[in-house]
Amino acid sequence: MRTVSDRLFWVGTYTGDQGSGRGVHRALRASGSGAFERIECAAEMADPSYLATHPRLPVLYAVSELDEGASVAAFAVGAGGALRPLGSRPVPAGPCHVAVAPGGDCLAVSCYVAGAFAVAPLAADGSFDGDPSVLPGQGSGPRKNRQEGPHAHSAAFAPDGTILGTDLGADLLRAFRVEAGAARLVAELPMPSGCGPRHLAVHPSGTVFVITELANTVVALSPRDGYADLVVTGESPATADPAPGDATSAAIKLSPDGRRAYTSTRGADVITVHEVVGDGTGLRPVADVPCGGQGPRDLHVDAQWLHTANQYSGDISTFSVTDGIPKPQGRPQPAPTPVCLIPAD
């Protein structure tokens, strides 16, 4: 039975040939132990690899990471985490990330295979309000096995409304703005050659931290004249100890108080704690903690708990973070190829 303090989470999965998930799953986190209970399918869907929630409404968004028939879908959230479809929109091939604007008026989808970003307008009830604007990418990088062309990987909304999108294939941050209901490219910001920018987080100080998948680093960028004009101000390792040669860093999340960042690195299979230094302008890796599974693709952190979605071992690990350093809490809970984990509220 759910208690008042239990918390509902959404789990993105891979399905079919890529995994054992059935679609978007829901999981209830017990308030006392932090463990997840009753991980079950909430909506059948092909490869919902990334999820996001509306900032004000009980609406969930999920990408369907397909090469053909790719889409982004919206669901109304009902009692007990029941999901009711609100429609979907087609997007370019291989969508792997979705982010919703703080005002709830649009969302941004990053399409890895196509190397494009898509920005879809949203109606007042959180449903789609027209077709997405598609912003194709171009360029390549020195690592030809991964950077033969553009690969859009994630996007985030900066405080001034600029959409910042990482392009792993072209070693770029792309900056977009939405005007008159349509998105347009306003800047391309170069990143270190061969780094493969993957995910990013915007610190309350204004610094943008970008984790790189191919160099296993975190790059810090500071705005000069708004977030379409960023300059690299530092770079630090994504792990405290040197990562093995086949390691690929994945997620970066900030603690609620902004004092720490947490990153995940596959291959090394660790969560790394970083201290935020220099008034929020840089990171210093402090400690690596085994993730408890294999392939920590995503993580969630709040004031009490940290969780990792371990793709390759098919489970979710729980850690206490009340003193900043993750401490394992029991055994990982089995989950069907989890690759994204977000709270429902």
Give the gist of this structure.
It comes from Actinomadura rubrobrunea. The protein is an all-beta fold.
Overall description:
It is a single chain. With 345 residues, the protein is mainly β. The chain has no helices and 29 strands. The chain has strands at residues 7-13, 23-29, 36-44, 51-53, 59-64, 71-77, 83-90, 95-100, 106-111, 116-121, 133-136, 152-157, 163-167, 172-179, 182-190, 197-202, 208-212, 217-223, 230-237, 248-254, 260-266, 270-277, 282-290, 296-301, 305-310, 315-320, 327-328, 333-334, 338-343. The two termini are 19 Å apart. The model has no long low-confidence stretch (mean pLDDT 97).
Topology:
Layout: E1 7-13, E2 23-29, E3 36-44, E4 51-53, E5 59-64, E6 71-77, E7 83-90, E8 95-100, E9 106-111, E10 116-121, E11 133-136, E12 152-157, E13 163-167, E14 172-179, E15 182-190, E16 197-202, E17 208-212, E18 217-223, E19 230-237, E20 248-254, E21 260-266, E22 270-277, E23 282-290, E24 296-301, E25 305-310, E26 315-320, E27 327-328, E28 333-334, E29 338-343
Antiparallel strand pairs: 1-2, 1-29, 2-3, 4-5, 5-6, 6-7, 8-9, 9-10, 10-11, 12-13, 13-14, 14-15, 16-17, 17-18, 18-19, 20-21, 21-22, 22-23, 24-25, 25-26, 26-27, 26-28
